[in-house]
Design brief:
six-stranded parallel beta sheet; 14 strands; alpha/beta; Rossmann fold
Length: 366
């Protein structure tokens, strides 16, 4: 049995969605999987504490029956260390069991890595969502296990459905949380770029920017939009259900999410570990605009399936102006993005890479 550890999959976060995809993939391959999550058992701190207690009890119950433990987050490895006494008391059950952990991005970048390094180094193998994340770990000194790359898959866009024609004008779409702690997503960069075009009288009436998402920074972004006089070009749509989000992806011109990678003075990291929405856009036949550094560089080929830029307003403004004047480039890049998604990021590719990563086979990239 494979014991799968994750956060509460009732939430809509990327890790939770990926966890369900891993669970479904393993079951498609005939694997027996048990998913454990430390979900709340009521409101407030007490509900959180009760949920963690139940998680530990379930872990005690199911750990002896597992030949593999796959943790979907580095912080969930710690309870396994707390339960080492169980392995010592039942050496036969523990013998041959392997521990693996999935690496996403900021939880193992910068100053976050030393906090979980010992737990990661105790694993048999590690799985990274991108080569970029794998390289950020391997560039740090330490005796690291083999790291396999398994790119996440996307299941939002219906496979096999032909892409929609490009809309009239340049319709930009951003799908990202608007949180003060995640300003690297690039909303302000886009506003500054549109403001530059406006100041230069180059902001066409046929250009629009549609923003999907919620967060505690939304009000400030809307205020900044009004301050810059960009209300006619910008529309904040809020959080959307999956069907509405798929429609937005199918009817935009290009996905625009220039998330910047970097480390601040305190060593805190920011950036995309992979960025599943870039893949969702590609499946819908749309190219993407992203920053050069980050996990998205595993998916987006600059100038072929999208554009990778330095997160700087003048560079983004110049690119938007070029794409508005040469819309055929969007169609060609979108077609290439879709074909690359089909060839290298399909469910079948995900199944093969995941199996190889768990088994230690060659298909997972080392």
């Amino acid at each position: 049995m494979i014991l799968l550890l994750s956060y509460d999959v009732r939430r809509r976060g990327g890790i939770e969605r990926l966890t369900l995809q891993v669970q479904a993939s393993l079951r498609r391959q005939g694997r027996k999987v048990r998913l454990l999550t430390p979900r709340r058992l009521g409101p407030g701190p007490l509900g959180r504490l009760l949920g963690r207690g139940r998680f530990l009890l379930e872990l005690i119950l199911w750990l002896p029956q597992a030949h593999t433990v796959l943790s979907m987050h580095a912080l969930l490895l710690q309870p396994l260390g707390w339960l080492e006494w169980l392995e010592r008391s039942a050496p036969g059950a523990a013998q041959g069991r392997q521990r693996l952990c999935w690496l996403h991005g900021i939880e193992v970048w910068g100053k976050a890595l030393p906090l979980v390094a010992a737990d990661l180094q105790a694993c048999r193998r590690l799985i990274a969502s991108s080569g970029f994340t794998r390289d950020r770990v391997l560039e740090r000194a330490g005796h690291w296990p083999v790291i396999k790359v398994v790119h996440p898959m996307a299941d939002l866009v219906e496979a096999g459905q032909a892409p929609e024609p490009l809309p009239q004008g340049l319709r930009l779409l951003t799908v990202a949380r608007m949180a003060t702690g995640e300003r690297y997503k690039g909303h302000r960069l886009v506003l500054d770029s549109l403001a530059l075009l406006h100041e230069r009288h180059q902001l066409s009436d046929q250009l629009s920017w549609r923003v999907v998402g919620e967060g505690n920074d939304r009000a400030a972004l809307e205020a900044r939009t009004r301050e810059l006089g960009l209300e006619l070009w910008v529309e904040f749509l809020g959080a959307l259900p999956d069907a509405a989000l798929e429609r937005e992806l199918r009817h935009c011109s290009v996905l625009l999410m220039p998330s910047g990678y970097g480390l601040d003075e305190a060593g805190e990291a920011q950036g995309e570990g992979f960025g599943i929405v870039y893949l969702e856009a590609a499946q819908a036949g749309r190219a993407a605009i992203a920053s050069r550094l980050g996990g998205q560089s595993d998916l987006i080929l600059d100038g072929e399936t999208g554009w990778l830029i330095d997160p700087e307003p003048n560079e983004l403004a110049a690119l938007l102006l070029q794409l508005e004047r040469e819309p055929a480039r969007l169609g060609i890049a979108g077609q290439r993005a879709r074909q690359r998604a089909v060839d290298q990021f399909s469910a079948a590719c995900f199944d093969r890479s995941l199996t190889a990563a768990i088994n230690g086979g060659p298909a997972g990239e080392a």
